[in-house]
Amino acid sequence: MTNRRPPLYLLIPAGAALALVLVPIAGLLQHVPWHTLLTQVTSDQVLTALRLSLVCSVLAVVVALVLGVPLAWMLARTTFPGKAMVRAVVTLPLVLPPVVGGVALLFAFGAHGFAGEALAHLGVTLPFTTAGAVLAETFVAMPFLVIAVEAGIRQADVRYEEAAATLGAGAWMRFWRVTVPLIAPSLAAGAALTWARALGEFGATITFAGNLPGTTQTMPLAVYVALESNTDGAIALSLVLLVVSLGILLGLRHRWLGVRV
Amino acid sequence: MAVALGAFDLDAAITAEPGELVAVVGPNGAGKSTLLRALAGLVALRAGRIALDGTVLADVAARVWVAPERRSISFMFQDALLFPHMSARDNVAFGLRARRVPRRHALRQADVLLEQVGIPARGASRPATLSGGERQRVALARALITEPRLLLLDEPFAAVDASARPELRRVLRLQLGRYDGVRVLVTHDPLEAMALADRVVVLEHGTVAQTGTIADVTARPRSAWVSTMLGLNLFRGVAGEWGIDVGAATIAAVSDVRGAAFAVVHPRAVALHRSRPEGSPRNVWLGRVESLDLQGDRVRVRLTGPLPVVAEVTPAAVADLELSIGDEAWVSVKATEVQLHAA
Protein backbone atom coordinates (compact mmCIF):
# COMPACT_ATOMS: atom_id res chain seq x y z
CA MET A 1 0.00 0.00 0.00
CA THR A 2 2.64 2.50 1.06
CA ASN A 3 4.93 1.51 -1.81
CA ARG A 4 2.33 2.16 -4.49
CA ARG A 5 3.38 4.69 -7.10
CA PRO A 6 1.86 8.05 -6.13
CA PRO A 7 -0.81 9.36 -8.51
CA LEU A 8 0.13 12.22 -10.81
CA TYR A 9 -2.36 14.64 -9.27
CA LEU A 10 -0.35 14.41 -6.04
CA LEU A 11 3.08 14.05 -7.60
CA ILE A 12 2.89 17.29 -9.64
CA PRO A 13 1.92 19.70 -6.81
CA ALA A 14 4.35 17.93 -4.47
CA GLY A 15 7.15 18.43 -6.98
CA ALA A 16 6.12 22.06 -7.42
CA ALA A 17 6.24 22.57 -3.66
CA LEU A 18 9.75 21.23 -3.51
CA ALA A 19 10.75 23.38 -6.48
CA LEU A 20 9.38 26.43 -4.73
CA VAL A 21 12.06 25.99 -2.09
CA LEU A 22 14.82 24.64 -4.30
CA VAL A 23 14.65 27.17 -7.17
CA PRO A 24 15.57 30.25 -5.10
CA ILE A 25 18.40 28.33 -3.45
CA ALA A 26 19.64 27.23 -6.87
CA GLY A 27 19.46 30.85 -8.00
CA LEU A 28 21.56 31.89 -5.05
CA LEU A 29 24.08 29.12 -5.58
CA GLN A 30 24.36 29.95 -9.30
CA HIS A 31 25.63 33.44 -8.46
CA VAL A 32 28.02 32.52 -5.71
CA PRO A 33 31.38 34.14 -6.57
CA TRP A 34 33.30 30.96 -5.79
CA HIS A 35 36.75 32.40 -6.67
CA THR A 36 36.42 35.42 -4.35
CA LEU A 37 34.27 33.63 -1.75
CA LEU A 38 37.05 33.30 0.78
CA THR A 39 38.00 36.98 0.65
CA GLN A 40 34.33 38.00 0.78
CA VAL A 41 33.61 35.82 3.79
CA THR A 42 36.72 37.01 5.60
CA SER A 43 36.25 40.72 4.88
CA ASP A 44 36.00 43.05 7.88
CA GLN A 45 32.36 43.87 7.26
CA VAL A 46 31.36 40.20 7.10
CA LEU A 47 33.47 39.17 10.07
CA THR A 48 32.10 42.03 12.19
CA ALA A 49 28.52 41.12 11.29
CA LEU A 50 29.22 37.42 11.83
CA ARG A 51 30.77 38.04 15.26
CA LEU A 52 27.89 40.28 16.29
CA SER A 53 25.36 37.74 15.03
CA LEU A 54 26.97 34.97 17.03
CA VAL A 55 27.15 37.08 20.21
CA CYS A 56 23.55 38.29 19.93
CA SER A 57 22.05 34.93 18.99
CA VAL A 58 23.90 33.06 21.75
CA LEU A 59 22.84 35.68 24.30
CA ALA A 60 19.26 35.42 23.02
CA VAL A 61 19.38 31.64 23.60
CA VAL A 62 20.73 32.15 27.12
CA VAL A 63 17.97 34.64 27.97
CA ALA A 64 15.36 32.37 26.39
CA LEU A 65 16.62 29.41 28.44
CA VAL A 66 16.71 31.30 31.73
CA LEU A 67 13.21 32.74 31.26
CA GLY A 68 11.61 30.23 28.91
CA VAL A 69 12.31 26.97 30.77
CA PRO A 70 10.49 28.05 33.95
CA LEU A 71 7.63 29.32 31.78
CA ALA A 72 7.50 26.00 29.91
CA TRP A 73 7.45 24.19 33.28
CA MET A 74 4.55 26.36 34.43
CA LEU A 75 2.62 25.64 31.24
CA ALA A 76 3.31 21.90 31.41
CA ARG A 77 2.94 21.16 35.10
CA THR A 78 0.64 23.69 36.70
CA THR A 79 -2.89 24.91 36.17
CA PHE A 80 -3.80 28.53 36.57
CA PRO A 81 -6.61 30.73 35.29
CA GLY A 82 -6.02 32.08 31.81
CA LYS A 83 -3.43 29.44 30.93
CA ALA A 84 -4.75 29.06 27.37
CA MET A 85 -4.45 32.83 26.95
CA VAL A 86 -0.90 32.82 28.32
CA ARG A 87 0.09 30.08 25.88
CA ALA A 88 -1.43 32.04 22.98
CA VAL A 89 0.42 35.20 23.99
CA VAL A 90 3.71 33.38 24.43
CA THR A 91 3.52 31.89 20.96
CA LEU A 92 2.27 35.12 19.38
CA PRO A 93 5.74 36.16 18.06
CA LEU A 94 5.69 33.00 15.90
CA VAL A 95 2.90 34.39 13.74
CA LEU A 96 3.33 38.12 14.28
CA PRO A 97 5.25 39.89 11.48
CA PRO A 98 8.68 40.57 13.05
CA VAL A 99 8.46 44.23 11.98
CA VAL A 100 5.31 44.57 14.09
CA GLY A 101 7.22 43.02 16.96
CA GLY A 102 9.96 45.57 16.46
CA VAL A 103 7.46 48.43 16.40
CA ALA A 104 5.83 47.11 19.59
CA LEU A 105 9.23 46.82 21.29
CA LEU A 106 10.03 50.37 20.22
CA PHE A 107 6.81 51.74 21.72
CA ALA A 108 7.37 49.85 24.97
CA PHE A 109 11.14 50.15 25.44
CA GLY A 110 11.75 53.31 23.38
CA ALA A 111 12.49 56.71 24.94
CA HIS A 112 8.76 57.44 25.30
CA GLY A 113 7.60 53.91 26.09
CA PHE A 114 6.53 53.12 29.67
CA ALA A 115 9.15 50.38 30.07
CA GLY A 116 11.77 52.50 28.35
CA GLU A 117 11.14 55.42 30.72
CA ALA A 118 11.40 53.15 33.73
CA LEU A 119 14.67 51.68 32.44
CA ALA A 120 15.99 55.17 31.62
CA HIS A 121 15.75 56.01 35.33
CA LEU A 122 18.10 53.10 35.94
CA GLY A 123 20.41 54.39 33.24
CA VAL A 124 19.56 51.62 30.79
CA THR A 125 18.79 52.34 27.14
CA LEU A 126 17.80 49.51 24.84
CA PRO A 127 16.89 50.83 21.38
CA PHE A 128 19.78 50.98 18.92
CA THR A 129 22.10 49.03 21.25
CA THR A 130 23.46 45.50 21.10
CA ALA A 131 21.30 44.69 24.15
CA GLY A 132 18.34 45.87 22.12
CA ALA A 133 19.29 43.52 19.30
CA VAL A 134 19.44 40.67 21.81
CA LEU A 135 16.00 41.66 23.16
CA ALA A 136 14.52 41.75 19.65
CA GLU A 137 15.97 38.34 18.81
CA THR A 138 14.79 36.84 22.11
CA PHE A 139 11.29 38.24 21.57
CA VAL A 140 11.00 36.57 18.20
CA ALA A 141 12.83 33.30 18.95
CA MET A 142 11.81 32.36 22.51
CA PRO A 143 8.50 30.70 21.50
CA PHE A 144 10.48 27.91 19.83
CA LEU A 145 12.17 27.13 23.12
CA VAL A 146 9.00 27.33 25.19
CA ILE A 147 7.07 25.06 22.82
CA ALA A 148 9.83 22.44 22.56
CA VAL A 149 10.58 22.38 26.29
CA GLU A 150 6.91 22.35 27.30
CA ALA A 151 6.37 19.30 25.09
CA GLY A 152 9.44 17.68 26.62
CA ILE A 153 8.27 18.30 30.19
CA ARG A 154 4.82 16.95 29.35
CA GLN A 155 6.36 13.76 28.03
CA ALA A 156 8.71 13.33 30.99
CA ASP A 157 7.05 11.08 33.57
CA VAL A 158 6.20 13.19 36.63
CA ARG A 159 6.64 10.08 38.76
CA TYR A 160 10.43 10.30 38.40
CA GLU A 161 10.20 13.59 40.25
CA GLU A 162 7.98 11.93 42.86
CA ALA A 163 10.51 9.12 43.25
CA ALA A 164 13.23 11.73 43.77
CA ALA A 165 11.07 13.45 46.41
CA THR A 166 10.59 10.21 48.36
CA LEU A 167 14.36 9.82 48.34
CA GLY A 168 14.75 13.18 50.02
CA ALA A 169 15.47 15.45 47.05
CA GLY A 170 14.12 18.98 47.36
CA ALA A 171 12.64 20.95 44.47
CA TRP A 172 16.02 22.33 43.33
CA MET A 173 17.73 18.92 43.22
CA ARG A 174 14.69 17.32 41.59
CA PHE A 175 14.77 19.93 38.84
CA TRP A 176 18.51 19.80 38.13
CA ARG A 177 19.26 16.11 38.73
CA VAL A 178 16.03 14.57 37.40
CA THR A 179 13.86 16.89 35.27
CA VAL A 180 16.61 18.60 33.29
CA PRO A 181 18.42 15.37 32.29
CA LEU A 182 15.07 13.80 31.34
CA ILE A 183 14.19 16.71 29.04
CA ALA A 184 17.74 17.20 27.73
CA PRO A 185 16.78 16.23 24.14
CA SER A 186 13.93 18.77 24.10
CA LEU A 187 16.16 21.40 25.67
CA ALA A 188 18.80 20.84 23.00
CA ALA A 189 16.25 20.91 20.18
CA GLY A 190 14.52 23.98 21.59
CA ALA A 191 17.81 25.81 22.09
CA ALA A 192 19.04 24.96 18.59
CA LEU A 193 15.82 26.12 16.94
CA THR A 194 15.83 29.27 19.05
CA TRP A 195 19.40 29.95 18.08
CA ALA A 196 18.69 29.43 14.37
CA ARG A 197 15.69 31.72 14.53
CA ALA A 198 17.67 34.38 16.43
CA LEU A 199 20.53 34.13 13.96
CA GLY A 200 18.19 34.83 11.03
CA GLU A 201 16.21 37.59 12.76
CA PHE A 202 15.79 40.70 10.61
CA GLY A 203 12.54 42.64 10.94
CA ALA A 204 12.29 43.16 14.70
CA THR A 205 16.02 43.84 14.98
CA ILE A 206 16.22 46.49 12.29
CA THR A 207 13.06 48.18 13.57
CA PHE A 208 13.95 48.21 17.24
CA ALA A 209 17.76 48.12 17.28
CA GLY A 210 18.58 49.79 13.97
CA ASN A 211 21.35 48.94 11.57
CA LEU A 212 24.60 50.14 13.14
CA PRO A 213 27.67 48.20 11.93
CA GLY A 214 29.44 46.59 14.86
CA THR A 215 26.60 47.34 17.29
CA THR A 216 23.32 46.08 15.85
CA GLN A 217 24.12 45.14 12.25
CA THR A 218 23.78 41.37 12.37
CA MET A 219 24.26 39.01 9.38
CA PRO A 220 20.77 39.32 7.85
CA LEU A 221 20.98 43.11 8.12
CA ALA A 222 24.43 43.07 6.52
CA VAL A 223 23.04 40.96 3.66
CA TYR A 224 20.30 43.49 3.09
CA VAL A 225 22.72 46.42 3.08
CA ALA A 226 25.32 44.63 0.96
CA LEU A 227 22.73 43.80 -1.69
CA GLU A 228 22.78 47.45 -2.79
CA SER A 229 26.53 48.05 -2.74
CA ASN A 230 28.29 44.70 -2.88
CA THR A 231 26.21 41.91 -4.45
CA ASP A 232 28.98 39.34 -4.17
CA GLY A 233 29.30 40.09 -0.47
CA ALA A 234 25.53 39.71 0.01
CA ILE A 235 25.58 36.35 -1.73
CA ALA A 236 28.56 35.17 0.30
CA LEU A 237 26.82 36.16 3.55
CA SER A 238 23.62 34.46 2.41
CA LEU A 239 25.54 31.31 1.67
CA VAL A 240 26.96 31.29 5.20
CA LEU A 241 23.47 31.66 6.69
CA LEU A 242 22.11 28.98 4.35
CA VAL A 243 24.78 26.47 5.34
CA VAL A 244 24.29 27.16 9.06
CA SER A 245 20.50 26.80 8.82
CA LEU A 246 20.66 23.60 6.80
CA GLY A 247 23.21 22.18 9.22
CA ILE A 248 20.89 22.81 12.18
CA LEU A 249 17.89 21.25 10.45
CA LEU A 250 19.86 18.16 9.49
CA GLY A 251 21.25 17.90 13.01
CA LEU A 252 17.74 18.12 14.44
CA ARG A 253 16.00 15.91 11.94
CA HIS A 254 15.19 13.31 14.59
CA ARG A 255 13.82 15.85 16.98
CA TRP A 256 12.11 18.31 14.72
CA LEU A 257 8.53 17.98 15.93
CA GLY A 258 9.06 14.29 16.47
CA VAL A 259 9.20 13.52 12.74
CA ARG A 260 11.79 10.93 11.81
CA VAL A 261 13.50 11.38 8.48
CA MET B 1 -6.79 9.24 56.85
CA ALA B 2 -9.11 10.28 54.05
CA VAL B 3 -8.18 11.08 50.48
CA ALA B 4 -10.56 12.27 47.79
CA LEU B 5 -10.41 10.05 44.72
CA GLY B 6 -12.31 10.21 41.47
CA ALA B 7 -14.93 7.50 41.79
CA PHE B 8 -14.85 7.06 45.57
CA ASP B 9 -12.94 8.27 48.60
CA LEU B 10 -10.24 6.43 50.49
CA ASP B 11 -11.04 6.35 54.16
CA ALA B 12 -8.77 4.11 56.18
CA ALA B 13 -7.30 3.92 59.64
CA ILE B 14 -4.23 1.72 59.87
CA THR B 15 -1.51 1.36 62.44
CA ALA B 16 1.76 -0.52 62.39
CA GLU B 17 4.15 -1.39 65.19
CA PRO B 18 7.87 -0.67 64.74
CA GLY B 19 9.47 -3.49 62.80
CA GLU B 20 6.16 -4.82 61.60
CA LEU B 21 5.50 -5.74 57.98
CA VAL B 22 1.93 -4.88 57.07
CA ALA B 23 0.56 -6.07 53.75
CA VAL B 24 -2.21 -4.01 52.23
CA VAL B 25 -4.19 -6.27 49.94
CA GLY B 26 -7.36 -5.83 47.98
CA PRO B 27 -8.82 -5.93 44.50
CA ASN B 28 -7.56 -3.62 41.75
CA GLY B 29 -8.72 -0.06 42.21
CA ALA B 30 -9.40 -0.46 45.93
CA GLY B 31 -7.19 2.49 46.81
CA LYS B 32 -4.09 0.54 47.88
CA SER B 33 -1.57 2.62 45.94
CA THR B 34 -3.31 5.82 46.98
CA LEU B 35 -2.88 4.77 50.60
CA LEU B 36 0.87 4.44 50.07
CA ARG B 37 1.06 7.70 48.14
CA ALA B 38 -0.76 9.45 51.00
CA LEU B 39 1.72 8.00 53.52
CA ALA B 40 4.57 9.26 51.33
CA GLY B 41 3.02 12.69 50.98
CA LEU B 42 2.55 12.42 47.22
CA VAL B 43 -1.19 13.09 47.48
CA ALA B 44 -2.93 15.51 49.78
CA LEU B 45 -5.17 14.29 52.57
CA ARG B 46 -8.73 15.56 52.67
CA ALA B 47 -8.93 14.75 56.35
CA GLY B 48 -6.99 12.79 58.91
CA ARG B 49 -3.57 12.44 60.42
CA ILE B 50 -0.36 10.53 59.76
CA ALA B 51 2.28 10.04 62.43
CA LEU B 52 5.55 8.15 62.28
CA ASP B 53 7.51 7.34 65.45
CA GLY B 54 5.64 10.09 67.26
CA THR B 55 6.38 12.70 64.58
CA VAL B 56 3.30 14.10 62.90
CA LEU B 57 3.75 14.01 59.11
CA ALA B 58 0.32 15.28 58.26
CA ASP B 59 -2.62 16.52 60.27
CA VAL B 60 -5.33 18.23 58.31
CA ALA B 61 -7.11 19.65 61.38
CA ALA B 62 -3.87 21.13 62.76
CA ARG B 63 -2.70 22.24 59.28
CA VAL B 64 0.49 20.22 59.54
CA TRP B 65 2.05 19.02 56.31
CA VAL B 66 5.55 17.60 55.94
CA ALA B 67 6.76 17.50 52.31
CA PRO B 68 7.71 14.05 50.95
CA GLU B 69 11.41 14.90 50.83
CA ARG B 70 11.38 15.74 54.55
CA ARG B 71 9.73 12.50 55.67
CA SER B 72 11.90 9.60 56.79
CA ILE B 73 10.41 7.29 54.19
CA SER B 74 11.36 5.36 51.10
CA PHE B 75 9.08 4.26 48.32
CA MET B 76 9.66 1.23 46.12
CA PHE B 77 7.54 1.70 43.03
CA GLN B 78 5.74 -0.92 41.01
CA ASP B 79 7.82 -0.28 37.89
CA ALA B 80 11.01 0.60 39.82
CA LEU B 81 11.16 4.16 38.38
CA LEU B 82 14.94 4.11 38.28
CA PHE B 83 16.25 7.37 36.85
CA PRO B 84 16.98 6.36 33.25
CA HIS B 85 19.89 8.77 32.81
CA MET B 86 21.86 7.42 35.80
CA SER B 87 23.79 4.21 36.33
CA ALA B 88 22.49 1.68 38.85
CA ARG B 89 24.93 2.84 41.52
CA ASP B 90 24.11 6.52 40.95
CA ASN B 91 20.47 5.58 41.36
CA VAL B 92 21.20 3.78 44.62
CA ALA B 93 23.37 6.65 45.85
CA PHE B 94 20.71 9.27 45.05
CA GLY B 95 19.09 9.28 48.50
CA LEU B 96 22.45 9.84 50.20
CA ARG B 97 23.38 12.56 47.70
CA ALA B 98 20.07 14.26 48.53
CA ARG B 99 21.21 14.21 52.16
CA ARG B 100 24.47 15.91 51.15
CA VAL B 101 26.65 12.86 51.71
CA PRO B 102 29.90 13.32 49.73
CA ARG B 103 29.76 11.58 46.37
CA ARG B 104 32.60 9.13 46.99
CA HIS B 105 31.16 7.97 50.27
CA ALA B 106 27.65 7.68 48.79
CA LEU B 107 28.90 5.58 45.88
CA ARG B 108 30.85 3.29 48.20
CA GLN B 109 27.71 2.75 50.27
CA ALA B 110 25.74 2.13 47.05
CA ASP B 111 28.17 -0.65 46.14
CA VAL B 112 27.59 -2.25 49.56
CA LEU B 113 23.83 -2.18 48.99
CA LEU B 114 24.11 -3.56 45.45
CA GLU B 115 26.18 -6.40 46.89
CA GLN B 116 23.52 -7.07 49.51
CA VAL B 117 20.75 -7.33 46.93
CA GLY B 118 22.89 -9.75 44.95
CA ILE B 119 23.90 -7.71 41.89
CA PRO B 120 27.37 -6.31 42.73
CA ALA B 121 28.47 -6.46 39.09
CA ARG B 122 25.62 -4.33 37.69
CA GLY B 123 26.56 -1.01 39.28
CA ALA B 124 27.73 0.65 36.09
CA SER B 125 24.69 -0.46 34.06
CA ARG B 126 21.96 1.87 32.92
CA PRO B 127 18.44 0.85 34.00
CA ALA B 128 17.42 0.17 30.38
CA THR B 129 19.97 -2.66 30.18
CA LEU B 130 18.79 -4.37 33.40
CA SER B 131 16.18 -7.13 33.61
CA GLY B 132 12.93 -6.51 35.45
CA GLY B 133 14.15 -8.42 38.48
CA GLU B 134 17.47 -6.54 38.53
CA ARG B 135 15.66 -3.22 38.28
CA GLN B 136 13.56 -4.05 41.33
CA ARG B 137 16.68 -5.03 43.25
CA VAL B 138 18.30 -1.70 42.39
CA ALA B 139 15.05 -0.01 43.47
CA LEU B 140 15.15 -1.93 46.76
CA ALA B 141 18.78 -0.94 47.35
CA ARG B 142 17.92 2.68 46.50
CA ALA B 143 15.02 2.62 48.98
CA LEU B 144 17.05 1.01 51.79
CA ILE B 145 20.21 3.14 51.55
CA THR B 146 18.71 6.07 53.48
CA GLU B 147 17.65 3.80 56.37
CA PRO B 148 14.11 5.21 56.40
CA ARG B 149 11.78 4.72 59.36
CA LEU B 150 8.98 3.75 56.98
CA LEU B 151 9.46 1.67 53.86
CA LEU B 152 6.61 1.64 51.35
CA LEU B 153 6.54 -1.12 48.74
CA ASP B 154 4.00 -0.84 45.93
CA GLU B 155 3.51 -4.15 44.14
CA PRO B 156 7.24 -4.90 43.95
CA PHE B 157 6.67 -8.05 41.86
CA ALA B 158 4.09 -6.74 39.41
CA ALA B 159 6.57 -5.76 36.69
CA VAL B 160 8.79 -8.83 37.14
CA ASP B 161 8.67 -12.05 35.10
CA ALA B 162 7.16 -14.98 36.94
CA SER B 163 10.46 -16.82 36.56
CA ALA B 164 12.39 -14.08 38.39
CA ARG B 165 9.89 -13.72 41.24
CA PRO B 166 11.07 -16.46 43.62
CA GLU B 167 14.61 -15.06 43.62
CA LEU B 168 13.36 -11.48 44.09
CA ARG B 169 11.06 -12.67 46.88
CA ARG B 170 14.04 -14.35 48.58
CA VAL B 171 16.17 -11.20 48.33
CA LEU B 172 13.28 -9.05 49.50
CA ARG B 173 12.56 -11.26 52.49
CA LEU B 174 16.24 -11.31 53.46
CA GLN B 175 16.61 -7.53 53.18
CA LEU B 176 13.28 -6.78 54.84
CA GLY B 177 14.29 -9.10 57.66
CA ARG B 178 17.38 -6.99 58.39
CA TYR B 179 15.42 -3.80 58.37
CA ASP B 180 13.91 -2.62 61.65
CA GLY B 181 11.53 0.14 60.55
CA VAL B 182 7.89 -0.14 59.60
CA ARG B 183 7.23 -1.78 56.28
CA VAL B 184 4.01 -1.43 54.33
CA LEU B 185 3.64 -3.68 51.31
CA VAL B 186 0.85 -3.19 48.80
CA THR B 187 -0.06 -6.19 46.73
CA HIS B 188 -2.97 -7.77 44.95
CA ASP B 189 -1.24 -11.15 45.16
CA PRO B 190 -2.29 -12.94 48.37
CA LEU B 191 0.63 -15.38 48.13
CA GLU B 192 3.05 -12.48 48.30
CA ALA B 193 1.26 -11.07 51.33
CA MET B 194 1.24 -14.45 53.03
CA ALA B 195 4.89 -15.07 52.22
CA LEU B 196 6.16 -11.74 53.55
CA ALA B 197 3.74 -10.07 55.94
CA ASP B 198 3.10 -10.24 59.68
CA ARG B 199 -0.30 -8.69 59.35
CA VAL B 200 -2.70 -7.92 56.53
CA VAL B 201 -5.02 -5.00 55.95
CA VAL B 202 -7.69 -5.75 53.39
CA LEU B 203 -8.77 -2.66 51.50
CA GLU B 204 -11.93 -2.82 49.44
CA HIS B 205 -13.47 0.15 47.70
CA GLY B 206 -11.48 2.63 49.74
CA THR B 207 -12.29 1.24 53.17
CA VAL B 208 -10.67 -1.34 55.43
CA ALA B 209 -12.68 -4.53 55.01
CA GLN B 210 -10.62 -6.56 57.45
CA THR B 211 -7.35 -6.49 59.34
CA GLY B 212 -5.49 -9.10 61.34
CA THR B 213 -2.77 -11.72 61.25
CA ILE B 214 -2.56 -14.00 58.27
CA ALA B 215 -3.97 -16.88 60.33
CA ASP B 216 -6.96 -14.80 61.49
CA VAL B 217 -7.85 -13.60 58.05
CA THR B 218 -7.43 -17.05 56.54
CA ALA B 219 -9.70 -18.59 59.13
CA ARG B 220 -12.38 -15.93 59.17
CA PRO B 221 -12.51 -14.06 55.92
CA ARG B 222 -15.11 -11.33 56.17
CA SER B 223 -15.79 -10.70 52.50
CA ALA B 224 -16.12 -12.70 49.34
CA TRP B 225 -12.88 -11.29 47.98
CA VAL B 226 -10.94 -12.12 51.14
CA SER B 227 -12.42 -15.58 51.21
CA THR B 228 -11.44 -16.31 47.64
CA MET B 229 -8.05 -14.66 47.68
CA LEU B 230 -6.78 -15.00 51.23
CA GLY B 231 -8.81 -17.81 52.75
CA LEU B 232 -6.10 -20.32 51.87
CA ASN B 233 -4.17 -22.77 54.01
CA LEU B 234 -0.51 -21.89 53.95
CA PHE B 235 2.39 -23.93 55.28
CA ARG B 236 6.02 -22.94 55.09
CA GLY B 237 8.76 -25.54 54.91
CA VAL B 238 11.37 -27.31 52.84
CA ALA B 239 10.31 -29.07 49.66
CA GLY B 240 11.81 -32.34 48.48
CA GLU B 241 10.95 -35.22 46.20
CA TRP B 242 8.20 -36.53 48.46
CA GLY B 243 6.53 -33.23 49.25
CA ILE B 244 7.18 -30.55 51.82
CA ASP B 245 8.50 -30.84 55.36
CA VAL B 246 6.70 -28.21 57.44
CA GLY B 247 8.27 -29.16 60.77
CA ALA B 248 5.37 -30.78 62.57
CA ALA B 249 4.64 -33.04 59.64
CA THR B 250 5.40 -33.80 56.04
CA ILE B 251 2.78 -33.03 53.42
CA ALA B 252 2.86 -35.18 50.32
CA ALA B 253 2.79 -33.11 47.16
CA VAL B 254 3.59 -33.42 43.47
CA SER B 255 5.94 -30.68 42.32
CA ASP B 256 9.42 -30.03 41.02
CA VAL B 257 9.93 -27.20 43.53
CA ARG B 258 12.89 -27.94 45.83
CA GLY B 259 14.29 -26.16 48.87
CA ALA B 260 12.58 -23.38 50.82
CA ALA B 261 8.95 -23.29 49.73
CA PHE B 262 5.43 -22.84 50.88
CA ALA B 263 2.48 -25.08 50.32
CA VAL B 264 -0.97 -23.73 49.52
CA VAL B 265 -4.05 -25.87 50.08
CA HIS B 266 -7.42 -24.46 49.17
CA PRO B 267 -10.00 -25.07 51.93
CA ARG B 268 -12.31 -26.65 49.33
CA ALA B 269 -9.63 -29.33 48.80
CA VAL B 270 -9.70 -30.31 52.49
CA ALA B 271 -12.10 -33.20 53.20
CA LEU B 272 -13.40 -34.12 56.68
CA HIS B 273 -14.31 -37.59 57.94
CA ARG B 274 -15.71 -39.09 61.16
CA SER B 275 -13.46 -42.16 60.92
CA ARG B 276 -10.06 -42.64 59.40
CA PRO B 277 -10.59 -42.63 55.63
CA GLU B 278 -9.19 -45.33 53.41
CA GLY B 279 -8.39 -44.55 49.82
CA SER B 280 -6.20 -42.42 47.61
CA PRO B 281 -5.53 -39.25 49.66
CA ARG B 282 -1.89 -39.26 50.77
CA ASN B 283 -2.32 -36.73 53.55
CA VAL B 284 -4.51 -37.89 56.41
CA TRP B 285 -4.39 -36.69 60.00
CA LEU B 286 -6.58 -36.22 63.04
CA GLY B 287 -7.64 -32.69 64.01
CA ARG B 288 -9.98 -31.05 66.50
CA VAL B 289 -12.73 -28.63 65.47
CA GLU B 290 -11.98 -25.19 66.85
CA SER B 291 -14.61 -23.10 65.13
CA LEU B 292 -17.45 -23.31 62.62
CA ASP B 293 -18.35 -20.24 60.56
CA LEU B 294 -21.31 -20.19 58.23
CA GLN B 295 -20.45 -18.08 55.19
CA GLY B 296 -23.22 -17.94 52.64
CA ASP B 297 -23.82 -21.47 51.45
CA ARG B 298 -20.59 -22.85 52.96
CA VAL B 299 -19.20 -23.56 56.39
CA ARG B 300 -15.56 -22.84 57.17
CA VAL B 301 -14.32 -25.34 59.71
CA ARG B 302 -11.12 -24.44 61.53
CA LEU B 303 -9.22 -27.39 63.00
CA THR B 304 -6.25 -27.58 65.34
CA GLY B 305 -3.86 -30.51 65.47
CA PRO B 306 -0.44 -31.32 64.04
CA LEU B 307 -1.36 -29.14 61.06
CA PRO B 308 -3.84 -26.36 61.77
CA VAL B 309 -6.10 -26.18 58.76
CA VAL B 310 -9.32 -24.66 57.48
CA ALA B 311 -11.81 -26.76 55.55
CA GLU B 312 -14.69 -25.41 53.51
CA VAL B 313 -17.67 -27.76 53.41
CA THR B 314 -21.42 -27.54 52.87
CA PRO B 315 -23.82 -27.11 55.82
CA ALA B 316 -25.29 -30.51 54.85
CA ALA B 317 -21.90 -32.17 55.30
CA VAL B 318 -21.50 -30.59 58.74
CA ALA B 319 -24.94 -31.94 59.67
CA ASP B 320 -24.16 -35.45 58.32
CA LEU B 321 -20.85 -35.58 60.20
CA GLU B 322 -22.54 -34.14 63.31
CA LEU B 323 -19.55 -31.82 63.75
CA SER B 324 -19.47 -29.41 66.64
CA ILE B 325 -16.74 -27.42 68.36
CA GLY B 326 -14.31 -29.62 70.29
CA ASP B 327 -15.04 -32.75 68.22
CA GLU B 328 -12.26 -34.76 66.65
CA ALA B 329 -12.34 -35.21 62.89
CA TRP B 330 -10.12 -36.87 60.31
CA VAL B 331 -8.70 -34.53 57.71
CA SER B 332 -7.61 -35.62 54.26
CA VAL B 333 -5.96 -33.77 51.39
CA LYS B 334 -4.95 -35.29 48.06
CA ALA B 335 -1.29 -34.76 47.18
CA THR B 336 -2.35 -33.29 43.83
CA GLU B 337 -4.29 -30.54 45.64
CA VAL B 338 -1.16 -29.26 47.39
CA GLN B 339 0.44 -26.45 45.41
CA LEU B 340 4.08 -25.74 46.14
CA HIS B 341 5.65 -22.33 45.51
CA ALA B 342 9.34 -21.57 45.86
CA ALA B 343 9.82 -19.16 48.74
Short structural summary:
The complex is a heterodimer of chains A (261) and B (343). Chain A has 261 residues and is mainly alpha-helical. Chain A has 13 helices and no strands.
Describe the protein in words:
Chain A has 261 residues and is mostly helical. Helix content of chain A is 75%, strand content 0%. In chain A, helix 8 packs antiparallel against helix 9. Chain B is an alpha+beta fold. In chain B, a hairpin with a 2-residue loop joins strand 10 (199-204) and strand 11. The interface between A and B is medium-sized, with 18 and 26 residues.
SSE order of chain B: EEEHEEEEHHHEHEHEEHHEEEEEEEEHEE
Radius of gyration of chain A: 22 Å
Element order of chain A: H for helix, E for strand: HHHHHHHHHHHHH
Total strands of chain B: the figure is 21
User: What helical percentage do the residues of chain B reach?
Assistant: 25-40%
Poorly predicted tracts of residues of chain B = none
Average pLDDT metric of chain A: 89
Instruction: Work out the helix count of chain A.
Output: 13
Question: Strand-residue fraction of chain A?
Answer: under 5%
Order the strands across the largest sheet of chain B as they lie in space: 7-8-9-3-10-11
